[in-house]
Amino acid sequence: MTRRSADSGHPPPRVPRLPEPLPDLDGAACLDHKYLPASAWTGARASYRDRELAKAVCQACPVMERCREFGLGPVGAVMNGVLGGLSASERRQIRHERRLSA
Ligand code: SF4
């Protein structure tokens, strides 16, 4: 394992601006979920089981529609994991279908 040295002359990381603001997701069911870790939604290496459970939790989330539209927007296009009950590949498919029907 390698470590980056704490070089004071090293420039700070650049964090790009989001192309759209984050939606208000107050009351999101994934926040501090009792049984599932956050990595079930965000982890690129989440197991199939955890991802499917996360998608099931999304179905009962009070802000699912808002989250889903955000996930289908430009920011969601570059995010991994589950958003609005959809995996990254499902969002990609919906985006593709929307482009075809436009
Ligand atoms: S829809 Fe799913 S990912 Fe979006 S806020 Fe709700 S629980 Fe979280």
Descriptive report:
This protein is mostly helical and 102 residues long. It has a domain at 39-101. The chain is built from five helices and no strands. It is globular. The model has no long low-confidence stretch (mean pLDDT 88). The site of iron/sulfur cluster has 15 residues, from α2 and α3.
In short:
The protein has 102 residues and is mainly alpha-helical. The protein has helices at residues 39-42, 48-59, 64-71, 74-77, 88-101. Iron/sulfur cluster binds next to helix 2 and helix 3.
Topology, pairings included?
Blueprint lengths: L38 H4 L5 H12 L4 H8 L2 H4 L10 H14 L1
The structure holds iron/sulfur cluster (SF4).
Helix content: 40-55%
**Secondary-structure element series:** HHHHH
Strand content: under 5%
Rg, nearest Å: 16 Å
Ligands in the model, by name, code or SMILES, are:
iron/sulfur cluster
Quaternary status = single chain
Highlighted features:
41% helix; mainly alpha; binds iron/sulfur cluster; globular; 102 residues
